[in-house]
Amino acid sequence: MPDDPRLSLILALADDELILGHRHSQWTGWAPHIEEDLAFSSIAQDEMAHARMLYRVARESGLTDRDDDALALGRPPEEYLNAVLCERPNGDWGYTVARQYLYDTADAIRVQVLGDSSWRALADAMKVIELEEKYHRDHAVTWFNRLAEGPSLTARERFAEGLTTAIGEAIAVFEPLSGEEELVSEGVLPRSNEDMLGDWLGELGEALEASSLDYVLARHGPVGEMVPTGSGEIPVESVDFTVPGVVRRDGRWMHEGAFAGAGGRRGRHSEDFLPLWEEMTALYRAHPGAKW
Length: 292
Description:
Structural class: mainly alpha
Number of strands: 4
Low-confidence stretches: 224-238
Distance between the termini: 24 Å
Radius of gyration: 18 Å
Largest sheet: 2 strands, antiparallel
Number of helices: 10
Shape: globular
Strand order of the largest sheet: 1-2
CATH topology: Ferritin
Oligomer: single chain
CATH superfamily: Ferritin, core subunit, four-helix bundle
CATH class: Mainly Alpha
Mean pLDDT: 90
Number of domains: 1
CATH architecture: Up-down Bundle
Strand content: 5-15%
């Protein structure tokens, strides 16, 4: 793990954007219709540009001597701190849209909070990113309404299945960071991940209740993670990471319990990450020093 908790924060933010952007880009040429082909390609480009901006903040702030290309493509798998949600294969359209909705609503809260960071370089970057992330969130909400409230029962069921599959790993977007207490005390992270999780679940619960989909927030079991090795061997399963449960209390959905163990924010990933990493970094590894 990075020695400076600010680098852990930057990598968590940037790696989320990079990895999810890579997944979004895989819809190019395969989306249900041409408008979505273009939309997901555009969103993927935005996410990767956000990642590059954040990697540059890390370099210019003296937190690393690696440039943005080396940070994006030159690290071993266990050094990536993205949430596992971002690395999962796209699956069907229902899962992809559910994941985008869950991630972008969570990210909207995170970006807004970090806009008030005492770390000026990060706060300035968040203000720029927020402008484009609003479009991503609007796109996700449009699809939420289309699938959750549209005339097709099959589409609604597939979307609900996607939400149910992704909800536990979406909660893990708010997994506490290494050194988070220091980040919060210094105002670099103005609010803890636990606080942001509470806000997100409250907003998410209201949206799901309005569409009678709140059953996906019913108590869920622990979320198992996978641990990739630095040597590129087959990952081995980890059973020590769980996320809080979700309950409805006093008219509001909230989390119950705490995170246990270590997940994506500690470099522990799913069995899906290593193939993605190999594909994403192949050219850079074949041509060291190549520019992104």
